[in-house]
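During the second half of the funding period, the structural biology subgroup turned its attention to how the target accommodates small molecules. The most pressing case was thiamine diphosphate, which had performed well in the primary screen but for which no bound structure existed. We therefore specified the complex as follows and requested a full 3D prediction, including the ligand pose.
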Amino acid sequence: MNEKIFRLKTFEKASYCRHFEEEVIKNLKLKNINIPTYVSAGQEFIAASMATICEDLKIKPLIFGQHRCHSIYISFGGDKVKLIDELLGRKTGCTKGMGGSASIASKEINMFGHDGLMGSNGPIGVGACFATNHPTIVFLGDAAAEEDYVLGGLGWASTKNIPLITVVEDNNLSILTEKKVRRNWEMSDVAKSFKMQGYNIDDDPIDLLKYSEIFFKKPCLLNVNTNRIFWHAGAGKDSDDTFDRYEEEKKRLGEDALAIDKKIKEEIKNLWKKQLEK
Ligand SMILES: Cc1ncc(C[n+]2csc(CCOP(=O)(O)OP(=O)(O)O)c2C)c(N)n1
């Protein structure tokens, strides 16, 4: 795919994610949302890029996210109204108002909800991929990736050569503990030690596109460095200086991105307004 088209398609998905999360923040502050909520703003280009690549490959993968998964659901085409309803605790939500922010599931997009045990989606995703031989993506945080059962699953995936992509959304933090305090190794090296292709890259969409030639042909792991703009849970901010990929892409793409951003902001605002009035 042409680079500019890829960037724009990915930006469009990221824009849906970003404006959705901005409404989430607003409604957390207004206390319209009253459940633990894990906002993915800042990290949205990872899911958006993976979804654009899958669309181009005409592949509808099995998706195993963890608690910070709004952007995964939205990028892969999850029904946004059902996600709003879920966050508002309604029966019409994507998990009938019982999963909340952390356990989003959708049969329509093959997305399996997380159970809250960090990293459990690693081996569960490996098992599903092995049993079905269906292209599968497991999304893990950099802390979840450290769990022993994640590592066992990676070894099995490599041994059985299954069509699995493990994406580590590496925002450097486990709640508030930085990676350098927790370990002196990288997940890309762990993958290589299991004889799997492993890469340590940035969340620039083109960096993800670069590796798409091997996607689903053999197991691989992408450790993608990114930034969390809001707190681990809830609406606060650790810093106002956090690098923001969304703003960077908006600048790079110029007028085209500004028009997409404006249109989608309005669309998402209206969607929330309509649901809140119900
Ligand atoms: C096995 C297990 N250990 C600890 C926790 C508590 N916990 C919940 S989220 C979290 C941090 C997760 O960090 P990461 O996987 O990097 O994802 P992020 O929140 O950064 O998206 C921890 C330690 C848990 N839920 N499960």
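Two results from this model are relevant to the next phase. Strands lie at 62-64, 111-112, 136-141, 164-170, 173-174, 177-178, 197-202, 220-225. The domain at 3-198+207-277 is CATH 3.40.50.970 (Rossmann fold).
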